[in-house]
Amino acid sequence: MKYVSIHASSHNAANTADTLVPLFAVDDNILVEGQPATAGSKMLESFIPLHDAEAVTRLKHAGYSVTGKTNVGEFGLDLLGETSCFGPVTDEAGNLIGAASALVDSGDVDCALNLDINGTPRRAAALSGAVFIKPTYGTVSRHGAIPCVCSAEQIGVTAKTSEKAADVLRIIAGHDEKDGTTLNNTANYDFIDARGLKIFIANEFTVDADREAIKAAEAALLAAGATITRGVFPMPEAIRSAWHIIMCAEACSNLSRYDGVKYGYRAPEYQTIDQLYTASRSDGLGLGIKSIILYGSDALSKDRYRVCYDRALRVRRAAHEVMTGLLNEHDVFLLPACSKPRYSAGGLDTIFDESLYTAPASITGFPAVALRRVQLIAAPLRESLALSAARVIERSVRA
């Protein structure tokens, strides 16, 4: 299995030290000094960063050692890494798995840093034995993450347990003057007694999803003393559509820098500057990213901006209001992380379909914890509630 695209020499040094050094992996769209950062794309095949991402720096200062860069789908926008220029990571049965979550689940690393854009790390952890937390937007610096969808992407943590994920978040969270979007206040990652937690389950998300995972999570939470409320969640389809418009539009804008002149792969043969642009982007980008760029370009065009992109931004505001209202009345929103227990392939239609479950947290910037095929969303800076509910679920599985 292709877990890692490039290994760091610090791995062996850490293993030979008298004191066991905790190891962490880093997704290939987060910078590590001196190691390639391809973001899973041929376009960045020769890019070697000169500095670490802020989150990497903070973990290193806390005594952690980088063991390698983990494979990701091209610019982190696919289902489970299947569009990577290095090829997908699969299990023995040919099912897609997340590289970072597989390393964490196997115990090869203590944790991993992942850039959550389209919910891929959440989906990967939910399909493995790992836990992933996407914190509140702005609580962890994005300095050193390869930008793609700047208004939503967030560095999160994959770990074996929710306690470990919380420990790592305490290290990497906090204001960073190099990232103007980071918050001055940080979330509380302490665990609380799950007794009395108010959990909301929306009927709309359980129709086509893996109901057994929701039932298992619901039973565990009820046994721990939480209360469950089932109800209606408005506009899930509109949120998914709006998220894809915003995602494609911002990706189109951010990826326009890779033209073979200023940044990125340069085609070896061309006669004119137009041929250089065309050949470089044609050869350097995959089909999925090209489709996203084309759709984003259309959404931002003069004729479509108001009826497409501007409307998507209005839906984003409405989604934030709906989620805020829901989480004012409940502590945690429980929903599936994906519709199936395994995937053998991922196309554009599948990516769009599966975003039904990950779009609410992506478009609003709310924190979400994914494990055991479910997802727990809490209000901004209330990660402790989602983590506490997650710990109940993981302990019930281990029992």
What does this structure look like?
Helix 7 packs across helix 9 (287-299), helix 7 packs across helix 10 (305-329) and helix 7 packs across helix 11 (348-364). The chain is 39% helix and 14% strand. It has an eleven-stranded mixed β-sheet with strand order 1-3-2-4-6-5-10-11-9-7-8, with helices on both faces. The chain is built from twelve helices and eleven strands. It has 399 residues and is α/β, with parallel strands linked by helices. The longest helix has 25 residues, at 305-329.
Helix content: 25-40%
Mean pLDDT: 93
Poorly predicted residue ranges: 5-14
The CATH homologous superfamily of the largest domain is called: Amidase signature (AS) domain
Report on the biggest sheet. 11 strands, mixed
Layout of helices and strands:
Layout: E1 4-7, H1 10-16, E2 23-27, H2 54-61, E3 65-70, H3 99-106, E4 111-116, H4 120-126, E5 131-134, E6 154-159, H5 162-172, E7 198-202, H6 211-223, E8 227-231, H7 236-255, H8 273-284, H9 287-299, H10 305-329, E9 332-336, H11 348-364, E10 368-371, E11 374-377, H12 383-398
Parallel strand pairs: 2-3, 2-4, 7-8, 7-9
Antiparallel strand pairs: 1-3, 4-6, 5-6, 5-10, 9-11, 10-11
